[in-house]
Design goal:
Elements (H helix, E strand, L loop, with lengths): L4 H14 L7 H17 L2 H17 L12 H11 L2 H17 L20 E3 L1 H17 L2 H18 L9 E3 L4 E3 L4 H17 L7 H18 L6 E2 L9 E2 H14 L10 H12 L21 H5 L8 H17 L7
Antiparallel strand pairs: 1-2, 2-3, 4-5
Length: 342
């Protein structure tokens, strides 16, 4: 028996909420981003209550880590503040903006150094940062009327595009200022982060924003590259230009979401609608009956060669995999005319 989109979304959201979601970190932040996306589409206030309970519990523990990657849960603070108006949420948002503007480690070119709770990577910029911190700055800046934050978020975006986007339109995993060159490979999920941020910026920024044209151009270049490398399955291999590496599902969910978001903001993306549909169908075919997206690669640092990406585990349930899938499901439900209750 087949499942409807809403049935799958319900299973996936329940499976996500059953996960440990233990700390204020990037994987949890992406999972929450997905749950927020579903709440915005369905109007199910139980999702908002879960979000509030999780955030309040973390704040009570006092472990809101100040790193680039651990900025991801702050997206949820934006949604909670927008919904509730509680000043304490606004205070933490402002504090995170201040950290990124004034205290976050940077490369000599001004790009954020990619830092995790567990470690830092001296002199390295990673494509992940586009989503984890750069997008947050733009979204928080628009909420707070803080033009400096918006400008810095866009600066981070263009710094990463300039160093990481290759001639074929795809993004390499990282860049090392000591080596003065790219590091890693054309990692699939990293390309999902980049595509999502481009699409979300087009959704957030006003039509009068001068940066929109350059963002659109970067996204168009990337989508053309993605189309060339899409596997016959509808997925992408975890190293996109090395077909011997395994196909990976979270990247497909993220890329499909990005295209579906971008379709609202430009006819030039219609050429990639079928690519997105194929990726979406492929990703959904890997959702088990408990609502867990399978085939998601584990957390992936910059590796030295494709073989090292190929041996990254891909069998565990991952919060970021669930989040990317929930984002896609939300976009598909909206596409099919599902209106939020509020």
């Amino acid at each position: 028996m087949s499942r409807s989109l809403s049935a799958i979304a319900g299973q996936v959201s329940q499976a996500t909420k059953r996960m440990p979601m233990a700390e204020w970190n990037w994987s949890e932040g992406v999972a929450l981003y997905g749950l927020v996306s579903l709440w915005k589409t369905t109007g199910d206030d139980a999702l908002l209550q879960y979000l509030k309970t999780w955030v309040d519990g973390q704040l009570a523990r006092g472990q809101v880590f100040e790193t680039v990657n651990a900025t991801a849960p702050c997206f949820s603070l934006i949604e909670l503040y927008t919904a509730s108006g509680e000043p304490r949420y606004a205070a933490i948002i402002k504090s995170r903006v201040e950290f990124l503007l004034r205290r976050a480690e940077r490369l000599e070119n001004g790009a954020f150094e990619h830092t995790l709770v567990e470690t830092s990577f001296g002199g390295q910029m990673w494509v992940d940062t586009l989503f984890m911190a750069g997008l947050f700055l733009v979204k928080a800046g628009l909420l707070l009327g803080d033009r400096e934050a918006v400008e810095e978020g866009l600066t981070q975006y263009f710094l990463h595009v300039r160093q990481l986007q290759q001639e074929n339109g795809l993004y390499v995993h990282g860049w090392d200022e000591k080596k003065n060159g790219p590091i890693g490979c054309l990692w699939a999920r990293g390309n999902a982060w980049a595509a999502i941020v481009s699409a979300e910026l087009l959704a957030l920024l006003p039509e009068t924003e001068p940066a929109r044209e350059r963002i659109s151009a970067a996204l168009s270049r990337q989508l053309a590259g993605l189309l060339r490398y899409q596997d016959i399955s509808g997925l992408w291999t975890t190293v996109m230009d090395v077909p011997e590496t395994y196909v990976e599902t979270s990247a497909a969910a993220g890329i499909a979401y990005a295209v579906k978001r971008a379709l609202h903001f430009g006819h030039e993306y219609e050429a990639y609608a079928e690519m997105a549909d194929r990726a979406a169908r492929a990703a959904l075919s890997h959702v088990d009956w408990e609502g867990v997206l399978r085939g998601v690669s584990a957390g992936t640092g910059v590796q030295k060669h494709p073989g090292e990406y190929h041996v990254i585990a891909q069998h565990r349930a991952e919060g970021y995999g669930q989040g990317l899938l929930l984002m896609l499901l939300s976009a598909m439900m909206a596409e099919n005319g599902h209106e939020a209750a509020k």
